[in-house]
Inverse folding.
């Protein structure tokens, strides 16, 4: 039975269809609102506005549910490889053994980056933030890799999955004054990344299976998250029919913001500052509650999760396991736990439903894996890449129109030009 929402404006009544998703989410379809009523809606930050119907990721912010194509992230993080999850997100189903082998082999055949792209890379200063470098290098891919003549994006998808990890490690190697490493196709995706990051010509690098498994889990947990800021950016840029590379580059830039993916770097810097300041978490809880302090508890709060971020729970346990397995005693983990406990019992945070999000504990693991702080958001981007690709593919497959929001104008009304000599 069709459902409708009724809108009264003055003495007129209007009806708009209600659509229901496969998880019983409801939306009022206002496609005809302006034509019928002369009104638009306005919703700063799109807190109540759906941009699309998507079959990729379902999350329930109240119940703390997150599923990729119907599979729970708890199961995928425990049982799948990151490439399996990437395939699931991009192509819609978990791969068969043969499909997985073909996907992995295709990626391995494209891990080498055009040597001329290194000339672009060499132009960046040694202290350039890796996220700015990565977005520039991904955008530069559109100059070097024009895709196949059929117009299919398949080859560009494989190239991005294959080359982004390689390019991501270049910034780290340059910051260390070390030579970059070429990919090693005898290694799996995560081990290859770690080898490119940490191998040195002077001695063979042994990938620690605990580290590789932790990285695999982290990349899966970051792989997609429905219509977040960076994914919405990828879809919006792609809606103009800009290339996949240009769209992903834009997504990397959106992710770099400290309110979004950049928060994982901010969290560790915040925890370090608290440690340096004597570890008094109550002082920082008070600052976070004081609007005039300009301080936010980074890694806390979320636009949609209002009870807990399921990813944060998994990452917190993984942090305990990885640090124990590696024999690391990181004092900031204790500070993070104290901050979490203090905030979860404080009315300010409870009333605003502010809980640890995916970024609160992830930096502690990245640090234990030897990844430097300014590379944390790059790790987020590597994890989110298959999600961005899947969402971009879906937008194109649905032939969605170019995204172009309306506005309500609140500026000066019409006025005549006054020559400069006459202006006061
Ligand atoms: C990610 O959308 C996604 O799915 C994103 C992501 C993904 O996977 O793609 O999950 C990844 O970006 C996680 C979020 C990482 N960002 C941070 O950790 C930065 C710190 N958190 C925030 O700044 C904030 O919580 C946001 C940006 C995450 C959400 O902001 P909203 O939904 O716009 O909420 P808001 O800023 O309007 O805050 C509501 C209230 C305000 O207080 P009041 O004006 O009601 O009194 O909560 C307060 C805020 O001041 N508040 C905080 C706070 N976050 C919100 N107060 C102190 N510390 C915080 N961290």
């Amino acid at each position: 039975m069709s459902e409708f929402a009724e809108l009264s404006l003055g003495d007129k009544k209007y009806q708009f269809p209600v659509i229901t998703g496969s998880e019983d989410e409801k939306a009022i379809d206002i496609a005809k609102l302006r034509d019928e009523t002369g009104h638009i809606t306005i919703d700063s930050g799109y807190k109540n506005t759906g941009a699309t119907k998507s079959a990729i990721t379902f999350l329930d912010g109240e119940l703390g549910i997150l599923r990729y194509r119907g599979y729970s992230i708890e199961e995928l993080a425990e049982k799948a490889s990151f490439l399996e999850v990437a395939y699931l997100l991009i192509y819609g189903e978990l791969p068969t053994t043969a499909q997985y082998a073909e996907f992995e082999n295709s990626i391995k055949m494209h891990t080498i980056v055009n040597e001329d792209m290194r000339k672009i890379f060499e132009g960046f200063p040694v202290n350039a933030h890796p996220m700015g470098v990565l977005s520039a290098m991904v955008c530069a891919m559109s100059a070097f890799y024009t895709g196949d003549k059929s117009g299919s994006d398949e080859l560009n998808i494989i190239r991005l999955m294959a080359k982004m990890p390689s390019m991501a490690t270049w910034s780290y190697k340059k910051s260390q004054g070390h030579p970059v490493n070429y990919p090693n196709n005898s290694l799996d995706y995560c081990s290859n990344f770690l080898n490119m990051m940490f191998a040195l010509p002077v001695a063979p690098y042994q990938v620690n299976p605990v580290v590789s498994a932790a990285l695999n889990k982290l990349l899966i947990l970051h792989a997609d998250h429905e219509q977040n800021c960076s994914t919405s950016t990828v879809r919006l840029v792609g809606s103009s029919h800009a290339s996949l590379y240009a769209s992903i580059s834009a997504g990397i830039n959106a992710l770099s913001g400290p309110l979004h993916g950049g928060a994982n770097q901010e969290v560790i810097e915040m925890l370090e500052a608290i440690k340096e300041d004597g570890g008094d978490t109550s002082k920082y809880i008070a600052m976070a509650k004081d609007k005039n302090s300009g301080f936010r508890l980074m890694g806390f709060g979320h636009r949609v999760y209002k009870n807990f971020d399921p990813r944060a729970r998994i990452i917190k346990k993984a942090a305990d396991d990885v640090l124990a397995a590696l024999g690391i005693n990181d004092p900031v983990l204790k500070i993070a736990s104290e901050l979490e406990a203090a905030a979860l019992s404080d009315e300010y945070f409870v009333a605003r439903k502010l809980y640890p999000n995916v970024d609160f504990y992830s930096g502690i693991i990245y640090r234990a894996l030897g990844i430097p702080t300014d590379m944390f958001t790059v790790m987020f981007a590597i994890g989110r890449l298959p999600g961005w690709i899947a969402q971009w593919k879906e937008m194109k497959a649905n032939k969605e129109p170019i995204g172009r929001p309306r506005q309500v104008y609140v500026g000066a009304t019409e006025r005549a030009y006054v020559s400069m000599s006459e202006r006061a």
